[in-house]
Automatic annotation (TrEMBL):
Alphabetical list of SMART domains matching this protein: AAA
Keyword Translocase: yes
SUPFAM superfamilies linked: MOP-like, P-loop containing nucleoside triphosphate hydrolases
GO biological process, one term: quaternary ammonium group transport
Family the UniProt entry places it in: Belongs to the ABC transporter superfamily.
Chain ranges of the ABC transporter domain: 31-261
Protein name: 2-aminoethylphosphonate ABC transporter ATP-binding protein
A GO molecular-function annotation: transmembrane transporter activity
Keywords: ATP-binding, Cell inner membrane, Cell membrane, Membrane, Nucleotide-binding, Translocase, Transport
Length: 386
């Protein structure tokens, strides 16, 4: 139930948070980021960031360009020290240590492989700096090439490999010295969609197998939702919300999160007792703390809208339903995205996603009539201007 608010924002249900903690088997914090700020002149890229990450967790920093996610990653890596605040890893204060004295491996968007070295030498680079015996280094390189599924590529050069293969080698090099922390800076953004989808599954499986604490920076919502144990949503240098993918998607704490993660219809509305008014219509919603008549924003995701045949609810119509006309239909493979208009909504357009089976069952066509239901538990209410 989203019936309690803090500073006008919906609260994640206590029972959901408790289930999440139990399902993640939460451990003591391995990485502790406390009150971190980063200023570039008068511009603050990070504003009082605090975050605990447990050992073995896979955490995604997610947000639009310029939100501060890469700046935070670079602060953790020691590549760009924070202006103030502290960072602890494994109980050790690393706030001011240079990168060479921190325990992490990093994979960059550009792969950053040495073009003049073979694949085996690229992977061995960090190991050679540790002065390990050559036989031990060769055995470790062989092990890592098998681990990333490229056992026969050791004698090739980076230019002879595909982008996806190069990224696997960059990952193997990063984990070669068995770091306590793995940092991934938009590692998949340079790859085409099909390779990206395949590789994100492989990276997640590899992370689970190794048990290494991992932080990945991404602006791709699908990547974060499919890979992360927890997501840190950032905007303008602050954390908007921290939660599991399910929490972030189903219970967005702010309008920004609701709009940035997935799709959302947004309407200027008026709050009333356990309801919200949109245009000439009134809809039941989850209990809230807004006074009657308070201007709010009502939001609902396109896939949460339920279609019914026009006129099928005439006798004892269900709550939260309105009659609409289909103005446009867009085929997106596994579903139809429709644009709907109804007198009750005034000039507002309602976007709804219907499955292929629903579209076939209801014979949906542009210009057709339809009744749609906006479930009360899926109507999200936020303060106007947030």
């Amino acid at each position: 139930m989203r019936h309690e608010t803090l500073a006008g924002q919906p609260r994640i249900p206590t029972e959901v948070s408790a289930m999440t903690a139990a399902s993640l088997n939460v451990k003591p914090a391995y990485l502790k980021i406390a009150n971190v700020w980063k200023a570039f002149g008068d511009f603050h890229a990070l504003k009082d960031i605090s975050l605990d990450i447990s050992e073995g967790e896979f955490v995604c920093f997610l947000g639009p360009s310029g939100c501060g996610k890469t700046t935070l990653l670079r602060a953790i890596a020691g590549l760009d020290l924070q202006t103030r605040g502290s960072i602890q890893q494994g109980g050790r204060d690393v706030s001011t240590l240079p990168p060479s004295q921190r325990d992490y491996g990093i994979v960059f968007q550009s792969y950053a492989l040495f073009p003049n070295l073979t694949i085996a030498r690229n992977i061995a680079f960090g190991l050679e700096n540790t002065k390990r015996p050559r036989a031990e280094i060769e055995a470790r390189v062989t092990e890592l090439l098998k681990l990333v599924g490229l056992p026969e590529q050791g004698n090739k050069y980076p230019a002879q490999l595909s982008g996806g293969q190069q990224q696997r080698i960059a990952l193997a090099r990063a984990i070669a010295i068995s770091p306590g922390l793995l940092l991934l800076d938009e590692p998949l953004s340079a790859l085409d969609a099909k390779v990206r989808t395949h590789l994100r599954h492989e990276i997640k499986e590899l992370q689970r197998k190794l048990g290494v604490t991992t932080i990945m920076v991404t602006h791709d919502q699908e990547e974060a939702l499919s890979m992360a144990d927890r997501i840190v949503v950032m905007n303008h240098g602050v954390i908007e919300q921290i939660g599991t993918p399910t929490e972030i998607y189903r219970h967005p704490a702010t309008l920004f999160v609701a709009d940035f993660i997935g799709e959302a219809n947004k309407f200027e509305a008026r709050a009333s007792n356990n309801a919200v008014g949109i245009g000439a219509a009134s809809f039941h919603c989850e209990p809230h703390d807004y006074d009657d008549g308070t201007p709010v924003i009502a939001a609902i995701r396109p896939e949460d809208i339920i279609p019914h045949a026009s006129g099928s609810l005439a006798n004892g119509a269900a709550a939260n339903t309105i009659d609409v006309t289909i103005s446009e239909m867009e085929f997106l493979g596994s579903f139809w995205r429709t644009r709907l208009h109804g007198h009750a909504l005034g000039n507002e357009t309602l976007i709804a996603d219907f499955s292929i089976n629903a579209a076939r069952r209801l014979s949906l066509v542009p210009g057709g009539e339809l009744t749609v239901e906006l479930p009360a538990e899926r109507l999200l209410i936020y303060p106007r201007g947030a």
